[in-house]
Amino acid sequence: xxxxxxxxxxxxxxxxxxxxxxxxxxxxxxxxxxLALEWITSNEVDRSKLQFADPVTTFLTEVDASPVFQTxxxxxxxxxxxxxxxxxxxxxSAKPNGVRVELEIIPKEVAAFPWELLHxxxxxxxxxxxxxxxxxTPAKLKKPLPPDTGPLRVLVVVGATDEDTxxxxxxxxxxxxxxxxxxxxxxxxxxxxxxxxxxxxxxxxTIVKLQGEYTDFMPHIFHFIGHGELIGDDGCLxxxxxxxxxxxxxxxxxxxxxxxxxxxxxxxxxRLVFINACRSDAQNVATEDIRVQAWSIGDVFxxxxxxxVLSMQADIKxxxxxxxxGIVYKGLAELKPLDQAVGLARGQIMTRVTLxxxxxxxxxxxxxxxxxEVLGLNPNTRFKQLPAIKACDDFxxxxxxxxxxxxxxxxxQGFYPLPRQKAxxxxxxxxxxxxxxxxxxxxxxxxVCALLNHDIRYVEIGGQETQSWLDVLLQxxxxxxxxxxxxxxxPLSESAFYRFNWDLEHRFKGEPPPTEFDNRVVPPxxxxxxxxxxxxxPDFEQETFESFRRAIIQAAEINNPLIIVLDHFTxxxxxxxxQDMTDRFIPNLVxxxxxxxxxxxxxxxxxxxxxxxxxxxxxEFELFKFGDLVKNYHLVPVTPxxxxxxxxxxxxxxxxCLDLKEEERRNLADALWPLLKDTPEWTPKSLLRYVQYDR
Length: 695
Fold this sequence. Notes:
Layout: E1 6-12, E2 21-28, E3 36-41, H1 55-61, H2 68-80, H3 83-93, E4 99-105, H4 108-111, E5 134-136, E6 152-158, H5 169-180, E7 197-203, H6 207-217, E8 221-231, E9 234-243, E10 248-255, H7 256-266, E11 272-279, H8 287-303, E12 308-312, H9 318-333, H10 338-352, E13 363-367, H11 386-391, H12 393-396, H13 405-412, E14 427-432, H14 438-451, E15 455-460, E16 466-467, H15 469-478, H16 498-508, H17 540-555, E17 562-567, E18 575-576, H18 578-594, E19 599-603, E20 606-617, H19 618-623, H20 626-629, E21 634-638, E22 641-642, H21 646-657, H22 662-676, E23 681-682, H23 684-694
Parallel strand pairs: 1-4, 4-5, 6-7, 6-8, 8-11, 11-12, 14-20, 14-21, 15-17, 16-18, 17-20
Antiparallel strand pairs: 1-2, 2-3, 8-9, 9-10, 12-13, 19-20, 22-23
Helix pairs in contact: 1-8, 5-9, 7-8, 9-10, 13-14, 16-17, 21-22, 21-23
């Protein structure tokens, strides 16, 4: 990812009335002492005295390319690059890592200038040339960042109607979804980060519904797509809520004070707020009002203490907004710092227009923390097992896993509860009918957990032969010898099981294990319950489970749960018997897991733990009497696809695996719809057969 550039802060302070000038200071981030001080006279930033058109008015009202924007950008550069400030800036820029420019402008009348146009004739600081990046920091962080846990959650709120050609909301959503998901998992730059980014789209909600969605989902990123307006001195976001009775849209004006009060009451502050809100009636609104509205909404979130706010300081064309958003999220999925992702997105817009266009400079990024700290998506805390994850055949089978968004969230919340005050569970049960995608769902979760550096094992109990409870324990210990190269089929730590192996060998001979163990190396052996040489004692079952519990806890890393997924208990008529499950496996392993007995507290801040995920058919759930025997588990129900959702499921699948334009995908889904609409429920496999057959 390269070395982090030196961050320099160019700060324009409030007007010094004695000097009739604004102080321009240069700092290096993290150091209090200024390196340089210069002055910008008030006449230099008096918009009425410039030799060219007013930069603010021109930027807000002209959307097409014009040479004046290069003139404005060079003018802004000369305001900053002067005297000792220029000397220190150039000196720091000459270092191998280059510099990141952080522009902090305190006076609002000066902050109104379109500083993103800044350039020295060749380099534009807001574009990803060399190591220059561009950001504001008009406000400081008031609250600590939320802890970085689990996948990155993105809540996209669409306020505009689907037919709105100025905003093109569906296009923006599709750009975001398609850019973060690469089809070829073997690409070197594919970090599989789409598994780590959970995007939830809410279309035109009431504020009450939005509150429920927001507080349930607790997003790291809050992204709004729609229109903005000015009411009095405050901006507002417009949400077109459909009135079912009147059969029309009502424009709900979500004002800045309401937004501030709502987010305070909801009790969760996102890490990044992304506002794409063009003006609803810019042609009939005074230029100054457009500027006030553009900054008002962003200021609300900065006052709330949001670490990063990405908003639009003027109108951006709908197709370019979609491109910009998609590239920003693509950059995040590739683990780029936020400012670099924004710079790349600006560059993509610039290639579609020209340098003389103002459109690439419309987005404004304000930061209160270093950009690499905003979201926490970095390879030092995640993705350490990436090569093994990419090579895992079980994970390759779920590359095109579609739908199941609610079930996915429910499952991952078993490991990362929301709200975080809820206790996590050590027993998770995935339950559903045949062919509804239970195993796909479990493997999806396993890949996410592996990307989060958790230790994962996958055990298929049935399908090959009838298993005893002891066979299953040894299968968990030993992994699958036929899949030695698979990440999720590896044996557990051999040394953790030395004592268990030693105890088991003694019990096999009918001997009670000695109370003291000398830590000798005892390799694993396959011991069969029905071996004619076995001399099992009456109490050996419970003791063996207890010995296994102690061993598997030691196999877990400190503060990194070991996750065991057990699947296909009775596949193909093979697997574990009802009696072994109900009389032995459930009382001695499943129930203790539900009671969190597979935990060992080492110190106040250190713990080992094991979590179990059981994938069960509804028939197995009833057969093994889980409802009667087991309590305190996290249930993940998996149901068939409803007819009303079938078209969207097919479209999602086609976006991932068919090289078609969005219009072509929709035409194909529309053509298939008459064959689907009269069937109330579908399994994912049956839906995909229609798509594949048609192709």
